[in-house]
Specification:
- It is a single chain.
- By secondary structure, the protein is mostly helical.
- The chain contains four helices and no strands.
- Helix 1 packs parallel to helix 3 and helix 3 packs antiparallel against helix 4.
- It starts with a helix and ends with a helix.
């Protein structure tokens, strides 16, 4: 069996990749770049997708190692909703362009909320 620390490491690497990809999308969009002009678009998309997968893999691995049975608690479903929101974030960033500064703060709040839910498991 895989140790819970390995799942945590996979989860954290995925989070880093996810935020790195979204940060790159923000920089391009905030500088007025169009989607078609982004030379890094493929690399950003791949990093974003692999990051999402690793977050999910690590998260479900930790659920299994922590013996959290079905039906899951509310905090697990809340984290899945946040995961879906992060999945669509790069599309929203490119569509919003320079007007997407509010998404910067949404990303921060969602990240903080996900960390809070993971640490405190409130419901």
């Amino acid at each position: 069996m895989i140790d819970i620390l390995a799942y945590k490491l996979v989860h954290l690497i995925g989070i880093m990749m996810l935020f790195m990809a979204m940060g790159a999308s923000f920089v391009h969009a905030f500088n007025g770049g169009l989607k078609s002009e982004n030379r890094w678009r493929t690399a950003i998309g791949i990093t974003h997708g692999i990051g999402l997968f690793l977050v999910l893999l690590g998260g479900f691995g930790m659920l299994a190692r922590l013996d959290i049975p079905w039906p899951w608690d509310g905090w697990v479903f809340a984290k899945l909703i946040i995961w879906v929101a992060f999945g669509g974030m790069t599309v929203l960033i490119q569509k919003a362009g320079r007007n997407g500064t509010w998404l910067w703060y949404v990303m921060l709040v969602l990240g903080l909320l996900a960390a809070y839910l993971a640490l405190y498991k409130p419901f």
